Amino acid sequence: MRGLPWHRAGRRGDGWPRRRLRTRLTLAASAAVAVVVLGVCAAAFLVIRQQLLHQLDLHLTQSARLAAQQYRQEPPGVVQGECRYLAAPACTQLVPARAADDPAGPYLLPVTGATRQVAAGIRGPYYSELRLAGHRARMLTTPLGAGRALQVAVRADTVDQGVRQAAGLLGAVGAAGVVLAGVLGFWVSRTGLAPVARLTATAERIAATRDARHRIELPPKRAAGDDEITRLAAAFNTMLGELEKSVTAQRRLVADASHELRTPLTALRANADLLARSDRLTAAQRERAAGGLGRQLREVTVLVNDLIELAREEEPDPLVEDVRLASVVAHAVDAARDHWPDVPFRLRIAHDTETGTVAGVPARLSRLLSSLLDNAAKFSPPGRPVEVTLARTTGGTVLEIRDHGPGIAAEDLPYVFDRFYRARTARALPGSGLGLAMARQIARAHHADLTAAQAPGGGALFRLRIPHSAALDGLSQVSYP
């Protein structure tokens, strides 16, 4: 299924529209920071509330100690009852273990079964909440000895006020934190996705203009390395560079092919027009025109076939077999002798290579060798031999083809395997300039290395090195600019 652009990707299954990446990142960063801020505020509120209650309990404990010293000899009943006022001391009363020993007057603080258990020594001291004169209060019930319990209570207004103040302050801090989280989330998403935005803009510009020369601006290199976004942008720039090379190579191939085809097609048209008026020609002229037409058709056919193979920019993947390279070389040299009868070919095959095999495709290896031999024969002066040597070295099997012609100029060496490239001294010779390019492509597909150099004493030397490990399951699918 074809993907849709991000901004037209539709809606989610739950009905909510899909948000842009920047919006999602902003919301995610803001939510994360907001959760942390709110969590810290909630934890701080609980700690403050607990500390205020602890301070109130300490106050009750101190009041209970003083009351135990002052009222230990007093009879059961209320001994201090002014705690209904905020500034008054703690309310205090003594409660016996048995209800029969209660005083005639009522108690100020509530007396429960738990209070009787503390007085009887069955239960330990405890804190409790109560309402006192319409206000919340906190009470401590603790044993006093002699079958009595001491109850001390104070109003909790200070705690409630402190809790309310802390809640308001922390609420304001939390709200400010949420707002700050939103701002920071927007800033983080905008800063973090800036290279992605530039990448997107560059891709859209290339799609609109079909110009692969655009690049994404990268930050200066840092000692600690680049982050993932910068590496993504660098990889995208590398991809654009390769795309630009590919587009340039395609345009150059079309331009070079058009240039190379123009001359034979013009000659074909001229000979065809000449044969169309054959009634005006002599028999010798007709035969000469027909022969020229046939040669030009063969040249055009070879050129078109070579272009088709090179335009694929990769070798096909036929069946690979163990090939006796010595036999292929010998057959190629015999074919070259038939094609170039005026050029002597000298073949030397080392004894240890006669039965050796390499993994490859015989037809493609023959094509490679014929291209090298034809090139050498083309530049060989009359009577000078083309020397072919096949030997085995520690790194693999090496085939050398040397001629005694003018050689390759230093400025031409880097380009001899380029398509349609011909040195200045070769432009007047027949050929399309595709043979060496085809040879290099076949060599690379067989994991072999094909190089060109000046031969000692003059002439050109082409060296094909096939490694021993070239045992392949199939030809490599390699591309060339």
TrEMBL record:
SMART domains: HAMP, HATPase_c, HisKA. It is found in: Cell membrane. Residues 256-470 form the Histidine kinase domain. PROSITE patterns: HAMP, HIS_KIN. It is an enzyme of class 2 (transferase). The chain crosses the membrane at residues 21-48, 166-188. It comes from the Bacteria. GO terms for cellular component: plasma membrane. GO terms for molecular function: phosphorelay sensor kinase activity. Its EC number is 2.7.13.3. This is histidine kinase.
